[in-house]
Write a structure and sequence with these properties.
The chain has 216 residues and is mainly β. It contains four helices and eleven strands, in the order E-E-E-E-E-E-H-E-E-E-H-E-H-H-E. Helices cover 14% and strands 37% of the residues.
C-alpha cells in the first residue's frame, strides 16, 4: 500500500475557502520572542520589565510549476496573494489557517496547525512560455500568529496584578480586551485608561507601552 502524501492546506477563515499547495515546502521556520522594556534609573542599569510574548512568526518558501500543463502559474499563486486583500466589510485582510497532516474526517488532529495572517509575500517568476506566460514561481511568505484577546485570556490565565505591569500594544488591541486578559474583567478598562491618561480609548497606537496598574 502506497502512503498518500498529505499536502499543506491553506484555509481562508473569513470565506471558508481552502486550497492546497502544489508542492510542500522543504522547510519552514517558526520564530518566538518575548518583549522586555528597560526602566531608567539614576546611576543604575535599567531595570527590565517583561511586557508579554511576541506573536509567533512562520516563514516558508513555496514552489509552483505548471510548465508541463502549459498553464499560467498565477492561477495558483494568486490564491495566496489574495490573502493580503482587505475584506470589504471588516476592513482587514482575513485570518488564515495553515494545516499539514491528517485532515480526513474523524482523524486525529493535524500534525501542524497555525492560525495566522499573511504579513508579507514575495513572488518570483522564473520560467515563461514563448508568449510570456509565467509557468514557474517561487513564493517567500511570512505569516504572523493571529489570536483575539479572549483567546489570549484562555491560553494564558493570569492572576489579577498585585503590582504595576507594562504592556506593549498590538494591532487590533482594545482596552477592554487588555483588561479582560489582566483583570479577567473587560469593564475595568477605565483603570488602564486613567493610569495612562488616555482620552480616546478606541484609538490605541500599536507599539506604545501601557502601564497596567494593580487592583486595589
Amino acid at each position: 500500500m502506497v502512503e498518500r502524501l498529505e499536502k499543506l492546506r491553506i484555509k481562508n477563515l473569513a470565506t471558508k475557502e481552502q486550497f492546497f499547495v502544489l508542492f510542500n515546502p522543504s522547510e519552514y521556520t517558526l520564530e518566538d520572542a518575548s518583549h522586555w522594556v528597560g526602566q531608567e534609573r539614576m546611576s543604575q542599569k535599567p531595570e527590565l520589565h517583561y511586557t508579554g510574548s511576541a506573536r509567533q512568526k512562520l516563514t516558508m518558501e513555496l514552489f509552483f510549476d505548471t510548465y508541463e500543463a502549459r498553464a499560467d502559474v498565477r492561477q495558483h499563486t494568486q490564491k495566496i496573494a489574495s490573502l493580503l486583500e482587505i475584506d470589504a466589510e471588516k476592513h482587514v485582510p482575513p485570518p488564515v489557517e495553515l494545516s499539514w497532516g491528517s485532515i480526513a474526517p474523524g482523524a486525529p488532529n493535524a500534525e501542524f496547525r497555525f492560525v495566522c495572517v499573511l504579513e508579507t509575500l514575495k513572488q518570483q517568476f522564473v520560467l515563461f512560455l514563448g508568449d510570456g506566460t509565467p509557468v514557474r514561481a517561487k513564493l517567500s511568505a511570512a505569516f504572523v500568529e493571529f489570536t483575539l484577546p479572549k483567546d489570549e485570556e484562555q491560553k494564558h490565565k493570569r492572576n489579577s496584578p498585585d503590582r504595576t505591569k507594562l504592556y506593549v500594544v498590538k494591532v487590533r488591541d482594545t482596552l477592554s480586551g487588555i483588561a479582560a486578559v489582566y483583570y479577567e474583567d473587560p469593564s475595568k478598562w477605565r483603570e488602564i485608561a486613567m493610569a495612562n491618561d488616555i482620552d480616546t480609548p478606541r484609538q490605541l497606537t500599536p507599539g506604545s507601552v501601557l502601564r497596567i496598574p494593580k487592583i486595589s
